[in-house]
Specification:
The complex is a heterotrimer of chains A (486), B (476) and C (95).
Chain A (H helix, E strand, L loop, with lengths): L5 H10 L4 H19 L2 E4 L1 H16 L10 E5 L26 H8 L3 E6 L33 H8 L5 E6 L5 H7 L2 E4 L19 E6 L2 H11 L29 E5 L9 H16 L3 E5 L7 H16 L18 H12 L2 H14 L5 H24 L2 E5 L14 H5 L6 H6 L3 E9 L2 E8 L5 H14 L15
Parallel strand pairs in A: 2-3, 2-4, 7-8, 7-9
Antiparallel strand pairs in A: 1-3, 4-6, 5-6, 5-10, 9-11, 10-11
Helix pairs in contact in A: 2-3, 5-6, 7-15, 9-11, 9-12
Chain B lengths: L2 E12 L36 E2 H13 L7 E2 L2 E4 L9 E4 L9 E6 L5 E13 L3 E7 L2 E5 L6 E7 L6 H18 L11 E11 L9 E6 L2 H20 L8 E5 L4 E4 L12 E2 L6 E2 L2 H8 L6 H12 L3 H7 L3 H14 L2 H19 L10 H12 L5 H13 L4 H7 L8 H14 L1 H8 L5 H12 L6 H12 L1
Parallel strand pairs in B: 12-13
Antiparallel strand pairs in B: 1-10, 1-11, 3-16, 4-5, 4-15, 6-7, 7-10, 8-9, 11-12, 13-14
Helix pairs in contact in B: 2-3, 5-6, 7-8, 7-9, 9-10, 12-14, 12-15, 14-15
Chain C lengths: L4 H10 L6 H18 L23 E2 L9 H5 L5 E2 L2 E5 L4
Antiparallel strand pairs in C: 2-3
Classes of the chains: A alpha/beta (486), B alpha+beta (476), C alpha+beta (95).
Chain lengths: 486, 476, 95
């Protein structure tokens, strides 16, 4: 049961094959069994989950039906959950009980979903391996010596090990898609502005976007239906009508024009990953799609531009962590300066401090034009590349990551870590929707296929992903050690 | 050497919205500490700003009032610095694209001349909270009620030449924002604050000297004193062969001196960049024109109208339009009494004196406009004399009852009965034979003395015109 | 643009971070590497390109000036390291 998709579980619940309480208990048991190995959850809300599940069962008995009613879910610990610790993977917030719910959290509550707990993540979402978490790294269920990817590594590992039916993540430069690829599951980063950022602890405001981490494109559509839409509390949340994202899932791909960016199949891509993605593209050809080589000429500058824009915004976003109103404060500060400096230096980990430093430097007097302004210009060039590409094609497909999950501790050089996101980062800079779906294995580890659509074309993106999953079983594949009953 | 000062003012006014600039928290002066500090105002993680419609409208209204360019597209920026009263670690303000661009206003100088002072810009920004330095176990206390309140920062061109002009400029701004009803602008409460940039140079020079910034000035009077004291200080420094250091100084009104404020060890680098949680604010002509249509008559226009419509002097018109309340009061008195000149005299004279003496606001005055108008009517219709009018006015300050009732009950009604006046006149003629003779010998001036004696006998109630006339007749 | 230990100190001060003596070399080196990565974008001529601050080409929505929040001081101050008489306490502020 626990391996089923949300769509399937929804059917089981409505037929009465299983109750939400039973299902919730099953996942809680799984978490109990495996979390000490995986470290995917930082907080488990056993009691409140069972209460919510019982309420969902009552509501269903009263005639309520909703696709997510009674479905157990996990939230990345970046979303504020009222009355529940919200740590963002940081010592800074290790004792922070959020005083309100994020809009994403409220919407799942309204849909009747059951919150099992909060998942581990890179500190303040800064990382691509989940190793920067104050609460220790998450392990990849496919090989516990390997990283699950990051920053939404806890959510991705939880889905891959069937510790929950669905999970939320956030993606600033690839933080949903890369862990989804490394863990062999499905992850969607919607268009910037599609989902409210209210209550989602900010890393880089103009890049951050919440999204579903789940077991299929169909599940992503069901989750997006609940998550998407205007929120007047977030000025950057778009007033674009919310479609039923399941409506177009079964559209034919006959005549679909798929763009294959040359720059995503160039030097640095592992041959095994390339082979898996090329085979996946073959599936699309069989479905009647047409493959067209395209160029994204400024893609190679995306990491450079990103590492100005994201740290710059982060350097300001993280200034509020000063030990005055909430969060960590150092012991016995001798004066105000000492309180600021020690609280922040002791409360933040090395990667966070590094990015604050880079961002501060990029914005400082004399460097603004050369760094921040320049990066914004590159950002426009990258957006223009995509605009041009979408004149030619309907969707862009390539690998999500240059290789499969790497070993814990293998990447100590920050720059090498940053280059992990070479295929995903441009999508955030341009604000486009992107998705990673499992496309095969390379040396026994999952390979992610990266799909990108134009602004607010989530329906098409999900349709294209779903058609692939109807014709392949990669998304069903589980690491042997975590198969049910194992 | 003869020196000349170059002065620029940065004036912050708190916009009188119901809620804060970016959150739905109430924004009322004087609440208990931190009771107006909610999740956004405390910069709780994950909270986001949404711009208050009213703050934007007020800023545009101000811009139109000073004939400024209105930014059709304004952009908010983050100004980064750490301070305990700044919860986010940055202040949201407008750097390159403010809502209000170049404008100007006119000040009147004591010699009756006028000067235009340019306004460089006015931008919308957030207020900071308050640090209380009283001893809390050796610590400071932070109150964030004010944090996030909407401010309009109005920056003048460095075109002000002395302290008096600075005060006139500030008073004009004060009048304008109050006319527009966009701020209480109470300096003592901090809803109007003023930072002054001062530099001096040798007269006639076109180069600018090094400027200092004066902070912590919380009354019109102190603005004048602080500027004069700073000009003197800079002169002393330069005349002693020293150099003025660019710095921020805190003015101490009690001792009439200033001292340097911030450590220069780490120069501020505010690292401004566009606030990514907000989008550009775009407004169109329809929006602007709709606001223009709500503009009230402003002090300068009102003053000009008072001169042409009521025949007032420039000076009186200026005094009467200093505040919107005063102008409205005057107009009510003028219309209801039917005598604008008398209305102006009473309002600028006795009323103003009573307000000053009792430290009252106009709104607190026990004599409201309609009552004063009634008093004037009673003088005009000869029920009382002008002199008795002053007595009635004094009585009205104490006694809230109807003007006629006061006149009646205190027996202040003017005596116009010719029989009664005749007996008064007879008595005066009998008592002052010497003066009567002098008058008959052609010394006209003595008539005034005799009229005065008759008025005295009547305790001021006799109609002076009638007394005058009857005296002449009887002494012919 | 050389990034040296003096810059590290300046930037750390602006960001209110404490970099210990022993960390200084490593931090300087790491940031120098990151800046080298960033500097790749200097190779492109962008004189004619307008900066893009935000992926969304929409404008700011406005909020009605209505009070929507109520006083939660006591609850919110539970989160604070140190409070007294409704005030947040910090080491003495010297201006």
């Amino acid at each position: 049961m626990i391996e089923k998709t949300v769509a399937e579980l929804s059917g089981s619940l409505s037929r009465g094959d299983i109750s939400s309480v039973e299902l919730t208990q099953a996942y809680l048991d799984r978490i109990n069994q495996y979390n000490s190995t995986l470290n995917a959850f930082v907080t488990v809300c056993e009691e409140s989950a069972l209460t919510q599940a019982a309420q969902a069962d009552t509501a269903r008995a009263d005639g309520l039906t909703s696709p997510l009613l009674g479905i157990p879910l996990a939230h990345k610990d970046i979303f504020c959950t009222s009355g529940i610790k919200t740590s963002c993977g940081s010592k800074m917030l290790h004792n922070f009980i959020a005083p309100y719910d994020a809009t994403v959290v409220s919407r799942f509550n309204d849909a009747g979903a059951v919150m099992l707990g909060k998942t581990n993540m890179d500190e303040f979402a800064m990382g691509s391996s989940n190793e920067t978490s104050y609460f220790g790294p998450v392990k990849n269920p496919w090989d516990t010596d390997r990283v699950p990817g990051g920053s939404s590594g806890g959510s991705a590992a939880a889905i891959a090990a069937d510790l929950c039916a669905m999970a939320t993540g956030t993606d600033t430069g690839g933080s949903i898609r890369q862990p989804a690829a490394f863990c062999g599951i499905t992850g969607l980063k919607p268009s910037y502005g599609r989902i409210s950022r209210w209550g989602m602890i900010a890393f880089a405001s103009s890049l951050d976007q919440a999204g579903p981490i789940c077991k299929s494109a169909e599940d992503a559509a069901l989750m997006l239906n609940a998550m998407a839409g205007l929120d007047t509390k977030d000025s950057t949340c778009a007033d674009v009508p919310v479609e039923d994202y399941t409506a177009d899932l079964n559209n034919s791909l006959q005549g679909l024009r798929i763009g294959i960016p040359r720059q995503h199949f160039a030097e640095g891509l592992s041959p095994e990953v390339e082979q898996a993605v090329r085979e996946a593209l073959g599936v699309y050809e069989k479905l009647g799609a047409q493959l067209i080589d395209i160029d994204l000429p400024n893609n190679h500058l995306s990491v450079s531009a990103y590492y100005v824009v994201a740290p710059a915004e982060a350097s300001a976003n993280l200034s509020r962590f000063d030990g005055v109103r909430y969060g960590y404060r150092c012991d016995n500060p001798v004066d105000l300066e000492d309180m600021y400096k020690r609280s922040r230096s002791e409360g933040f980990g090395d990667e966070v401090k590094r990015r604050i430093m880079v961002g501060t430097y990029a914005l400082s007097a004399g460097f603004y034009d050369a760094y921040y302004r320049k990066a914004q210009k590159i950002r426009r060039l990258i957006k223009q590349d995509f605009n041009a590409a979408f004149q030619q094609v309907d969707i862009i497909i390539g690998p999500t990551s240059p290789h499969t999950a790497f070993t814990l501790g293998a990447k100590t050089d920050p720059v090498a870590m940053y280059l992990e996101d070479i295929y995903t980062i441009a999508v955030n800079l341009a604000g486009l929707p992107g998705m990673s779906v499992p496309a095969g294995l390379a040396d026994g580890l999952p390979v992610g296929m990266h799909l990108v659509a134009s602004d607010f074309a989530e329906s098409l993106l999900l349709n294209v992903a779903h058609q692939f999953q109807l014709n392949t079983d990669w998304h069903r594949l589980r690491a042997t050690a975590f198969e049910e009953g194992h | 050497m003869e020196w000349e000062a170059v002065i620029g003012l940065e004036v912050h006014v708190s916009l009188s919205t119901n809620t804060k600039l970016f959150s739905g928290t109430a924004s009322i002066f004087g609440a208990e500490p931190n009771t107006e500090a909610n999740i956004f105002d405390l910069a709780m993680p994950g909270t986001l700003p949404v711009l208050n419609k009213e703050a934007l409208r007020m800023a545009v209204k101000f811009g139109l009032a000073i004939d400024a360019e209105i930014g059709k597209r304004s952009v908010f920026d983050r100004k980064n610095y750490f301070y305990p009263d700044l919860p986010k670690g940055y202040q949201v303000t407008q750097l390159d694209f403010p809502t209000v661009g170049k404008g100007s206003l006119t000040i009147s100088l004591e010699d009756g001349s006028e000067r235009h002072i340019g306004v460089t810009r006015a931008h919308i920004e957030e207020n900071a909270g308050k640090s209380l330095h009283e001893d809390f176990h050796g610590m400071s206390g932070i109150d964030l009620n004010r944090s996030g309140e909407p401010l309009l920062e109005i920056v003048s061109e460095p075109e002000i030449r002395n302290a008096k002009e600075a005060v006139a400029y500030l008073k004009k701004l004060h009048a304008i924002v109050r006319y527009l009803d966009i701020s209480d602008a109470i300096m003592a409460q901090g809803s109007m604050r003023c930072d002054v940039n001062v530099s001096i140079r040798s007269k006639g020079s076109t180069e600018l000297g090094t400027r200092t910034e004066l902070k912590n000035i919380n009354s019109f009077r102190f603005v004048e004193k602080a500027i004069n004291s700073e000009i003197q200080r800079q002169q002393d420094v330069l005349e002693d062969g020293g150099t003025v250091i660019q710095e921020t100084r805190r003015y101490d009104a009690e001792r009439d001196t200033s001292s340097p404020m911030r450590s220069k060890e780490f120069a501020n680098d505010y690292r401004y960049f566009p606030e990514p949680d907000l989008l550009p604010v775009e407004i169109d002509d329809t929006y602007i024109e709709a606001i223009r249509a709500t503009l009230p008559e402003l002090p300068d226009a009102k003053s000009a109208r008072f001169v042409s419509e009521y025949g007032l002097s420039d000076y009186d018109a200026g005094v009467l339009t200093a505040t919107r309340e005063m102008a409205e009061y005057f107009e009510t008195v003028a219309r209801s009494s039917g005598d604008a000149k008398m209305a102006a005299n009473w309002v600028t004279g006795d009323l103003q004196a009573a307000l000053n003496k009792n430290n009252w606001d106009l709104a607190e005055s026990p004599i409201q406009a309609e009552r004063l108008a009634r008093l004037i009517q009673r003088i005009k219709d000869d029920t009382i004399s002008g002199k008795i009018g002053k007595t009635v006015f004094e009585a009205m300050l104490e006694d809230g009852s109807d003007v006629d009732q006061i006149i009646e009950s205190r027996g202040l009604k003017q005596v116009t009965d010719s029989g009664a006046i005749e007996s008064l006149v007879d008595e005066v003629i009998t008592n002052h034979p010497e003066q009567v003779q002098q008058f008959r010998d052609g010394k006209e001036a003595v008539l005034g003395f005799l009229v005065g004696q008759a008025m005295k006998l009547s305790q001021g109630k006799a109609n002076p015109g009638q007394v005058n006339q009857l005296l002449r007749e009887k002494m012919q | 643009m050389a990034f040296d230990k003096t810059e590290v100190e300046k930037v750390a001060q602006l960001a209110r971070l404490h970099i210990s003596h022993t960390e200084k070399d490593e931090v300087t080196g790491r940031i120098t590497d990151i800046l080298a990565l960033i500097d790749q974008m200097q190779s492109v001529d962008t004189d004619a390109v307008a900066p893009l601050a935000h992926p969304l080409d929409i404008t700011q929505r406005l909020r009605e000036d209505d009070v929507t929040e109520s006083n939660r001081r006591d609850e919110l101050q539970q989160l604070a390291p140190e409070v007294d008489e409704g005030l947040y306490l910090v080491p003495k502020v010297i201006e």
